[in-house]
Amino acid sequence: MDTLRIVAQITKYLYHNKENSYSIIKVNTEDDDNVTITGYIPYLSSDVYYEFIGKWVNHEKFGRQFNVVSYTQSETQSIDGLINYLSSSIFKGIGPVTARRIVDKLGNKAIKLILEDKSILKQFGFSDEKIEDLYETILDNQINEHILVELYGYNIIGKTAMKIINHYGILTIDKITANPYVLINDIEGIGFIKADEIAKKLKIEENDPRRIKAAIIYAMQTYSYSRGDIYMTYAELNKYTENILGFKYQIDKILEELIIFEQIIKEEDRYYLYNSYLSENNTALEIKRLINSEFETYDVNYLESLVKITETNKNFTYTEKQKNAIISSLVNNFSVITGGPGTGKTTIVDGILEVYSIYNNIKLYDLKTKDKIALMAPTGRAAKRMEEVLDFEAKTIHRHLGYGYDGMYGYDEVNQMPFDLIIIDESSMIDIFLAEKLFKSIKSTAKVIIVGDIDQLPSVSPGQVLKDLIESKICHVSYLNEIHRQVKDSNIIELAVKVNKQELNEEALNSGNDLFLKQGSSKEVIDNIINQVQGALNEGYSLIDDIQVLIPTYKGLVGIDSINSLMQEKFNLTKDYSITYGDKIFYVNDKVINLVNDPKNFIMNGDIGYITTISKNSNNEDFVIINFDGQEVNYSKADLENISLAYAMSVHKSQGSEYKIVILPLVRTYMHMLKKELLYTAITRAKNYLIILGDLNLLVYAANHLSEKRQTTLKLRLSNFS
Prior knowledge:
- About 40% of the residues lie in helices and about 20% in strands.
- It is an alpha/beta fold.
- A six-stranded parallel β-sheet has the order 11-10-12-13-9-14.
- A hairpin with a 2-residue loop joins β17 (about 580) and β18 (about 585).
């Protein structure tokens, strides 16, 4: 369909999102037709005509609409509209009479004529100061429009265009023409390819230093960050920069400039982005500070007696390893507890809390204790599970750090957290950037206990903090490897151990009391997923809380997106109310996942909830209410870009969570993702039952393929400390 133009006046904003300017607007065309237009449009005056450029579309619910991709103020305006515009509150000191005089004299092109020559206003008796004010106001009211027209010429439209204007303001075009590659770092959603398109329109040569610099930085961000690496070697950096540039290029000279200006840091044959280097170095310094700080010496004999008292109170007998872990965690100022499922990590933490509270004469359930002891985890689900098991308040790391709506943290190296004891669970998920913020915010006198499974997937973002910390041998580590009698008969735990030790073979692929294995084709896998879920629902399990399908990839017949749509169709029977955002459709009772940190509502990336309400407010604007573990959060329609269905989810997103029933399909299209760490992490998410469907030989394949080793130097930095 060809691009069309309509000239119209705005009559009513039906919906407007302040953050990205997405709007649904009623307009009246110059032919006196009432039309609905949609697009990323800021608030515009209702008194003047605009020329809207776009296409007609048919919305499945709201019918025919004009989808706007750009607009400009029409050169020709109605006389009455111009009078109302100039006499509005926008222009101080101009009433209806003066406005009519201007329009009677200058006609319906008054705005255009004033912008071309502001001295034309002298004939109306205005002072120089008033002429300047009027001219500047008209100019300011048209600035976004002119900038947008320029951006449309670079094929930047809609939401992205508004982000750029909101970031640079009046300097937008100057910034872009000076160096379009600044958009990569400044504007979310613009990468090297888009910036490169703009550069070509600006006639920037392919070997221009600005382009080479951007390609080097982009290579480091995309390649190293996607692998979780902190640094790249010269050979890697040169290779991937050339891939981005599209031709052979010797990067040494440009690379040296980036090093001089500290955009890149070089150590030996390692190249770091400045922020990555700084975060890793600072993390090492902060860990050293916490380990070497002076602290109260604990009486080991007294601790041993308190462990015995705790055993009596809890009617439980600790193993020698568990006793040693409890005591050493309290004797040392900074320590690590690591082990797989069933090895008693939670039991030890529970013991630590009990012994610590008795030793320090603290009542665990006193409200004041929350200011002395902090339990935290990287995700909301992990914190919730920690709190349920230990019966003591736990929060996300971000929330304990006072992460605010403005993206700032309440606690830092100057204003540190007040806690005397800090226990951090699921620490394998902590990346280098969060680690820096966390350790900086812990006071030197605090006792820090890091808990995690070193064999799980590392953080999504760069770093492998837990692994590097343990391998550096800088602090005391309690290694747990004994499976306890409560879970010794678990086939899930047995499978996890065999995968982790790379001892899995085809003879070991047997179903058991809590493990169900079924061979099948992709089509059979899909049918079996539906059947297994339906069977679990019939047994009274909850699709929201108890059942989780875990899949490594998003695309494909048995990908996350496809299985989510299928499960939504099969299991959500409340389809009376729906809301559509892009290619997403949501219904009441849908299981959903939040995809970004939302500190305003205390909802973090990876939190799971379900939709309770889809409705319209008093302004006829669509909204959705989602329940996250009892907390209801209101989402506008535009906010739904941060929400996805969660009947099926990635293994990475499931980290820190535990489900009564985990369904794990395995098909050959996953092969490039199947590694020991991913398989081990998926298996250990299952609490009661694990159901594995598909090509069972892939279990053995995955168990014997390790993820590539991450390139980090935290271990080196810690090991070098005396």
